[in-house]
Amino acid sequence: xxxxxxxxxxxxxxxxxxxxxxxxxxxxxxxxxxxxxxxxxxxxxxxxxxxxxxxxxxxxxxxxxxxxxxxxxxxxxxxxxxxxxxxxxxxxxxxxxxxxxxxxxxxxxxxxxxxxxxxxxxxxxxxxxxxxxxxxxxxxxxxxxxxxxxxxxxxxxxxxxxxxxxxxxxxxxxxxxxxxxxxxxxxxxxxxxxxxxxxxxxxxxxxxxxxxxxxxxxxxxxxxxxxxxxxxxxxxxxxxxxxxxxxxxxxxxxxxxxxxxxxxxxxxxxxxxxxxxxxxxxxxxxxxxxxxxxxxxxxxxxxxxxxxxxxxxxxxxxxxxxxxxxxxxxxx
Length: 332
Hints:
By secondary structure, the protein is an alpha/beta fold. It has three domains: 5-43, no CATH class; 54-158 and 291-319, Rossmann fold (3-Layer(aba) Sandwich); 159-290, 3-Layer(aba) Sandwich (Rossmann fold), CATH 3.40.50.2300. The chain has eleven helices and twelve strands. The strands form three sheets. It has a six-stranded parallel β-sheet with strand order 2-1-3-4-5-11, sandwiched between helices. A four-stranded parallel β-sheet has the order 7-6-8-9, with helices on both faces. α1 (5-12) packs across α2 (16-23), α2 crosses α3 (31-43) and α9 (220-232) packs across α10. The N and C termini lie far apart (81 Å).
């Protein structure tokens, strides 16, 4: 005999209206209650295998140099997990790692799981990975990746405008010799931040000096090592740097400080992300603040809309705010 909502109501001890709301992911149902209803419904066969019952957060790794060992993404995960719980859904963590020998099997496993909505952290994705994105038929949102394709939903930081505003801040502070600290793995977000820097410089009529564009690693240690190499070869330093992110900024600051270069008296620097330890660095770092948990909630909210059948793809840009600390010197 076919199971109905009344039977689920009797087994879970809640009203049929509550059962209906939970099964349709409507707000207002206690997270634990909704999770219990979904579990019972699946056990009784009310939900078939193609019914979405959980959210799978998938970290795409090309080399891991940006998404590993950073506190940025765990903070965003918290926002997603809370929103999932509010909708009575569990969140599970997964990864696609191109360095693994069984990467193709990882992809097949992801594509064959029809019970999960998917959030893909696409920070390390490149244009050639668009085939993977297009092959996913489940409700699906990409975070931190954008390539001009209109076929999928994505949520990303407004990278270009954020760095444009940060560069203009340095210009207002009297800086005209402004350099850029580039991560040596050119993810899409870094490329967009570089565009913001170049746009601000161009509109201000300030020439971009190639010698001030320094490439370093994307972790604190590798950025520090890379900056030491630049300093060893006697590079001419600008009065200020914009960095692709806080880890790069902090690593470069460490290298310069060890060489006796004072921050900000000799060189000013601005980061991006506003990681927790940016505020407690030896020179607190001026940076761009990303609302990480709020971004996670936006991602989860969009995913719930897709689960309910709202299928027109959207691209969402999350705005940032600027955090002034001690790493920038006023020159005028």
